[in-house]
Amino acid sequence: MFLSLFINSISVYVTSKLLDGVELKNFWTAVGVAVGLGLVNFFIKPVVSLLALPLTVITLGLFSIVINAFMIMIVDYFIDTFKIKSFGWAIGFSIIMSIINMALYAIFA
To answer: Would you list the domain boundaries of the chain?
Structure first.
């Protein structure tokens, strides 16, 4: 569990440094964002994914990127020291963070 939190925190921090449209105060904010994403993905995402299942099937799974961006925007709303400028930046954040997460899990896990 701690390894997952550490990997997600690193990927949030690195992704925020790569994208101009994402502002992050410090690494501790990245830890908070990782915890927030974990909570949002546990409680809210399953309901939204179930409701959006027909659209996800029609788009061959690509709508899941939009759902991930929506989850990131929810975390942005609740954490003051984490700002995303627009929904487009949230989509980019979602994609790049997924790639970095995949690479870090391949290295550490």
So the answer is: 2-108
pLDDT for the residue 98: 96
**Token pair belonging to 76:** 């942005």
Rounded CA separation 38/16 (Å): 17
- Vertex 78: Cα angle to 72 and 81 (nearest 5): 90
For residue 80, count other CB atoms closer than 10 A to its CB.
10
pLDDT at residue 87 in the model: 98
For residues 71 and 37, the answer to whether their CB atoms sit within 8 Å is yes
Residue 69 contacts residue 93 (beta carbons within 8 Å): yes
Q: How high is the pLDDT of residue 39?
A: 98
* Helix residue ranges, H only, the chain: 2-18, 27-43, 45-51, 53-58, 63-78, 87-108
Taking phi over 0 as left and psi of -120 to 50 as alpha, with beta for the rest, 4 belongs to: alpha
pLDDT reading at 45 higher than 90: yes
